[in-house]
Amino acid sequence: MAERIGQSTVRLCQPVIIRAAAGVVGHKERKGPLGDYFDIAFRNDKLGQPTWEKAESTLQTVAVNTLLQKAVLQTRDIDVIFAGDLLNQCISSTFGLRELGIPLLGQYGACSTMAQTMAVGAVFVESGAANKAIAVTSSHFCSAERQFRLPMEYGGQRTPTAQWTVTGAGAALLERGQSGVKIQHITVGRINDYHIIDANNMGAAMAPAAADTLRRFLTDTHTTVFDYDLILTGDLGRIGSQLLHELLQKDGPDITPNHQDCGCLIFDTEQAEVHAGGSGCGCCASVFCSYILPKLQRKEWQNILFIATGALMSPTSSQQGESIPGIAHLLHIVS
After folding, report:
1. pLDDT above 80 (res 259)
2. What pLDDT does 320 receive?
3. Which of 74, 117, 193, 232 has the least C-beta neighbours within 10 A?
4. 176, 208, 230 — which closes off a domain?
5. Domain of 18: which CATH number?
């Protein structure tokens, strides 16, 4: 059974492997640096649907079905699915997965949701509550802009700190196993609030949470950043990554040599319109499932930390003048 070590970290005593994964993305992501790695890259971001929101639901449907095809499984083989997204009441997950008939537990961690769904799924599998579980998340640029910022028709000027919400989804299959890519430790994030109020500066809101979670994990496990081949953050983007480095350097650990960020990997940040990089639940989900996991399977990396970050905001909280708290969940993954 899983056991707690230190103050914040859980060690999985029974091996839980990430057996397979699938990442699907939209047109812009297809043209980015990782375009050739994704399982499916659509040429039209509406995916044949009448609305952006329905298109995002379709991303989840396609991601899960692609995963099942890769794993040669049927929906009846899956005991539970953990799913989440950015839209109110996680409607992308609800309507995207309703026809599959798989027991569902909805999750919300903002852009940290992929790590959260994998963490909860791994504990279910390790405990025997499920034999096979799927973790899936999604986001869509147009649906997120419409909910959190301005109508698409407005055409407002984007600030240099702004990030581009990824149109994409990722799905991962978890089960018990002795060989394969394993989830070894989990550190659940705690809320960090530096009173950021700018909805166009997600990196600043999330960086303190990433630093806090990483520090707690290293303390609990008595390890250093040099023990890991890669420290991968979810979607801090260029600005948030710089802030993370500065926050950590104040008390010692310099992660610059082995740190990468999904928001910087998925887009060319020199493109003016993406500014600080990518964001959204689908950012780290699609990058991890299509780019990072295959490298672990080939043992190009053997020991990594996956820290997905999220900005815990909503239109309601912003309208009430609330700040934007951040959270970050960590998975220690070995191959």
Report:
1. yes
2. 80
3. 74
4. 176
5. 3.40.47.40
